[in-house]
Structures are given as C-alpha cells and as structure tokens.
C-alpha cells in the first residue's frame, strides 16, 4: 500500500516556493508470532494491504496476515521541490 502526502510551505519571499512530497509504503510484516515462547517466527506477509477504505478501522488491518499496520516495515520516500522566480528589477 502506498500513500502520498504533499506538504506545501510558503516562504517569506514571494520569489520562492517549495513543496515536500512524501510517499509512504508499508513492506513486509515483522510481527514475531513466537515471542511468547522465546522464539522468532514471522508469517511471511510481504506487503501491507489494507482491508478497508482509508479513514476506517479496516484501513489499519492487513488483509493478508490480519496484523496491525504498525507491525509492517515503514518506508518513507521524501522529495523536496523548490521553485525560484527571480524578482523583477
């Protein structure tokens, strides 16, 4: 599952503007199912797939393994875009 978050920041100068684009992806499940017996075993789920629509409680549960989204490895890609317009003289 991939999310995209766009953050717009207005600068003090009217000649510059910038935006930050963050792409968030949730990878493989890292929940240790054998922790209660002192072991280590993961279920093999390779990617988070939401079981419900965004904004519902199902959006936080993986449809493949049933674990909460927090057990899945979070990958964040950040892109900063700056635009500069020279001032008129």
From TrEMBL:
It comes from the Eukaryota. NCBIfam families: ZF_HD_prot_N. PROSITE patterns: ZF_HD_DIMER (PS51523). This is Mini zinc finger. Keywords: Metal-binding, Zinc, Zinc-finger. GO terms for molecular function: DNA-binding transcription factor activity; transcription cis-regulatory region binding; zinc ion binding. GO terms for cellular component: nucleus. Pfam families: ZF-HD_dimer. Signal peptide: none annotated. Residues 26-75 form the ZF-HD dimerization-type domain. The keyword Cell membrane does not apply. It comes from Theobroma cacao.
């Amino acid at each position: 599952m991939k999310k995209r978050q766009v953050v717009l920041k207005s600068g003090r100068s009217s000649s510059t503007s910038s935006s930050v684009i963050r792409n968030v992806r949730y990878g493989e499940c890292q929940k240790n199912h054998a922790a209660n017996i002192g072991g280590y075993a993961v279920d093999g789920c390779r990617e988070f797939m939401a079981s419900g629509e965004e904004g519902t409680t199902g959006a936080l549960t993986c449809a493949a393994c049933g674990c909460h989204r927090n057990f899945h490895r979070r990958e964040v890609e950040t892109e900063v875009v700056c635009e500069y317009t020279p001032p008129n003289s």
